[in-house]
Automatic annotation (TrEMBL):
One of its GO terms (molecular function) is glucokinase activity. This is Phosphotransferase. It catalyses: a D-hexose + ATP = a D-hexose 6-phosphate + ADP + H(+); D-fructose + ATP = D-fructose 6-phosphate + ADP + H(+). GO terms for biological process: D-glucose import; fructose import across plasma membrane; fructose metabolic process; glucose metabolic process; glycolytic process; intracellular glucose homeostasis; mannose metabolic process. It is an enzyme of class 2 (transferase). GO terms for cellular component: cytosol; mitochondrion. Its EC number is 2.7.1.-. The keyword Transferase applies.
Amino acid sequence: MVGIGPKQPPSRKGSMTDVPKNLLQTIKDFEGQFTVDTKKLKEIVDHFVKELEKGLSVEGGNIPMNVTWVMGFPNGDEQGTFLALDMGGTNLRVCEISLTEEQGGFDITQSKYRIPEELKTGTAEELWEYIADCLQQFIEYHHGEENLAKLPLGFTFSYPATQEYIDHGVLQRWTKGFDIEGVEGEDVVPPLENILKQRGLPIKIAALINDTTGTLIASAYTDPLMRIGCIFGTGVNAAYMENVGSVPKIAHMNLPPDMPIAINCEYGAFDNEHVVLPLTKYDHIIDRDSPRPGQQAFEKMTAGLYLGEIFRLALVDLLDNRPGLIFEKQDTSKLRKPYLLDSSFPAAIEQDPYENLQDTEELFERVLNIKPTPAELELIRRLAELIGTRAARLSACGVAAICKKKNITSCHVGADGSVFTKYPHFKARGAQALREILDWAPNEKDKVTIQAAEDGSGVGAALIAALTLNRVKAGNLAGIRNMNDMKTLL
């Protein structure tokens, strides 16, 4: 991928000649609140590096820096057929992946299932039964009455989990809007395996992984320059390969210090103490009204789950505190519904190709029953730009912090998630922030490039299951709990 230079997406400041002074001042106020300059970015990154190191220490910190027991990158020769189960924030996906003889090659069959909203605050039993339903449907549809040998499953569980073994994981806390009682503090593997066993399904969980770790491994499968895997979607996170000797919290295991081990940062929790992040009043409201106040501070400023809500809160603030400024004599009741707007709403505004912002006008009428004036449309567009730009620039801080911590001067970063793949200008804005943080010369080609990842939660999960079985075969049993069960998969 060619490095993205410092050129930024065009601003619409030139379209504001007819905007009244009071609205221009409001835009200026928003610019003051949401703009993150180079100096602030560097300050955030310096604090970020310290927090990453703290997470690896015995004491720990806000950022969990979870040890994944994924030891090393694939070499491209991995083979076999594997299931992958991907439990994200919105969908559940089941894949069957065959790693082929061709180096770095694979075939994939997959089905996607929507996670019902009521399940996110339901019971643990309902959750595991639903997941088992999806796996059973997949097996029955694609294999009918076949007498299958036991299939190894890579379970992508995209929530912070402590792992003493690769086939085990204790949920630390729910994120992405989930709040199911009785799961936090528990190992999530046994309840699912018990239901699979009860149903007689030929499936054994070989590895519990995070989507970010999967993204790292899947991307490295096809790109030897890959060093970091990131998710910029409903939530935010990153994974990278660390040396065991740099992880004091597992020193008691006496593993070889130069052995590589993947770390799932879970850095959506960066700066929960609010030391360095440039929080606005809207960020404070989001935190206060969330299911987990005081947690996931970084995620709440950068992730797709929150961008539409930040945008909505800013407009509601104007309605409440500057009456008559916008949407005068219009019914604004719809705008007052929390989380009515997801990140696709400000994304659609930024994508509006028309000079008169016709698409944005129609969007407001259709979704909110509000007809903005031309001047209001300019304010709306600028607000969306500011929120999207801030998210991209802050997101780059996590990548830069890992590069600084590991002394990485040049690498590829694999990224997945709806914000990265669908939000306009996100990649370019993130690339520009990296240039500023890492002090590249104006005409210097980007040394760290963030690019679209391979399918981490599918292919990555299958690869990690394959790598785990290869370790069992080689007798490297560090971080593997059920060795006898694993051997039945060989």
